[in-house]
Design brief:
Layout lengths: L8 H33 L10 E2 L4 E5 L2 E5 L3 H14 L3 E8 L5 E7 L19 H10 L8 E4 L11 E2 L7 E4 H4 L5 H11 L2 H10 L16 E2 L5 H8 L5 E2 L2 H12 L10 E5 L5 E3 L13 H16 L22 E9 L4 E10 L6 E9 L7 H15 L18
Antiparallel strand pairs: 1-2, 2-3, 3-11, 4-5, 4-15, 6-7, 6-8, 9-10, 11-12, 13-14, 14-15
Helix pairs in contact: 2-10, 3-5, 3-6, 3-9, 5-7
């Protein structure tokens, strides 16, 4: 005959203590969540599609009142004009002051009314190669002289096209110029040889991708994916991976590199005016770790990115018909990206970079979603945005792209 064992007082005390401990832990977790939530919930939602530009300031409605923004009114107008002139059906551009973290221009063109600066739309394309290069350098896996041999790879990446030597007509290229010339198979091969998928994912987050931009407003988040398979890793490392990138994320990545690997929160809202006209302080962005890269890694990346404008994939765009540099010694460095995706089919043209080379002042990102027939590339629009910025600062020899006059001597 079965017997029912009555729990002793000690058993009840033990059970109650464990239950109480679990309850306390749950309550504490809830309290922490509630404490943290307001900091995120109080971030304003800014309607940049209704931004108003005057001679002295740029304002936009928010869910907390009228937002007075950090944008430079003159540069904002120039960027809006340059995007319209690109004739791309969808386009976006953003400019960030590297030294202060203030956003100077934020503009989007979209018939559907989306804010494509912060809403994920375009694929990362070859801009993601910057993440790959950063991961290789930060993990001390590859040096500038490290070579990768390959065949093909112009429009697709396959492991079968990687080679150990230059035998049989294979091409061998060094890591130091692979970024500036956007060599797909070099970046893919080095990633397969030296990196794990998790290292690439972590570096993407460190550099501001996948929703990790520390900013003072609510923004959309991109999703750059790195598969666990070797084939998937190779494709992602070369910029053929699935996912989407926002121009805001691309520009923030460049601020990290320009600031010697330090993450600095960026700012769009200067202050907010309530319905009663009271000036409200803008909430600070999320607190983030202060360093994403070693300073030495950031400096090496800048050296590689400057190949792009000097002799690589953006060299032609950054020079006039006579071969003179539009920006003189202030071309800076950057990364181009081109990929055909989406429905309707779009030819996405990217440029993300910083300028000048020494002591960078601004970071810029441009995304154009062109039709099959197109008029301008992302690197050309970005170049002209930089021309507008430096011409307004009266840097000698730099002409304004909209007004066409040469800046006076500083």
């Amino acid at each position: 005959m079965a017997r029912t064992v009555q729990p002793s007082y000690a058993d009840l005390v033990t059970y109650d203590s464990r239950t109480l401990a679990r309850l306390i832990a749950a309550v504490l977790a809830t309290v922490v969540a509630l404490v943290c939530l307001p900091a995120q919930a109080t971030l304003p939602r800014v309607n940049m599609r209704q931004a108003q530009v005057t001679a002295s300031q740029v304002t936009a409605p928010t869910n907390q009142g009228k937002g007075v923004l950090t944008l430079d009114p003159q540069l904002q107008r120039d960027v809006e004009t340059l995007l319209r002139q690109s004739r791309a059906p969808e386009a976006a551009a953003v400019v960030i002051d590297v030294r202060t973290g203030k956003i100077l221009a934020w503009s989007s063109v979209d018939p559907q009314g989306r804010d494509l600066v912060s809403e994920p739309y375009g694929p990362p394309a070859s801009v993601f190669k910057v993440v790959t290069a950063a991961a290789l350098l930060e993990n001390s896996k590859a040096r500038g002289a490290t070579r990768q041999c390959y065949v093909g790879g112009h429009r697709a990446v396959h492991l079968r096209d990687l080679r150990n030597s230059g035998a049989g007509g294979a091409i061998c290229s060094s890591f130091s110029t692979a970024l500036g010339y956007s060599r797909n198979m070099v970046m893919a091969g080095l990633a397969v040889r030296y990196l794990e998928p998790e290292q690439l994912r972590n570096m993407a987050t460190n550099l501001g991708l996948n929703g990790s931009v520390p900013i003072d407003v609510v923004v959309g988040t991109g999703s750059c994916r790195v598969p666990s398979s070797k084939e998937g890793l190779a494709r992602a490392a070369a910029g053929f991976g699935r996912g989407k990138l926002t121009p805001l994320e691309a520009a923030f990545m460049m601020t990290v590199i320009a600031r010697d690997g330090r993450r600095q929160p960026i700012q769009l809202v200067d202050y907010i005016l309530s319905a009663e006209g009271k000036r409200l302080a803008a909430p600070p962005p999320r607190v983030e770790s202060t360093r994403a890269l070693r300073a030495s890694t950031a400096r090496q990346l800048r050296s590689m990115l400057e190949v792009t404008t000097r002799e690589g994939t953006a060299a032609k765009a950054f020079r006039d018909a006579r071969g003179n540099r539009y920006l003189g010694t202030r071309s800076g460095g950057g990364k181009t990206g081109t990929l055909s995706r989406g429905k309707p089919r779009r030819l996405f043209s990217w440029y993300a970079g910083y300028a000048p080379n020494n002591n960078p002042e601004v970071a810029v990102a441009v995304m154009l979603a062109n039709e099959h027939r197109w008029w301008r590339k992302g690197n050309e629009v970005a170049r002209d945005i930089l021309r507008a910025y430096f011409a307004r600062k009266q840097v000698q020899g730099i002409t304004h792209p909209v007004r066409g006059r040469t800046a006076r001597r500083r």
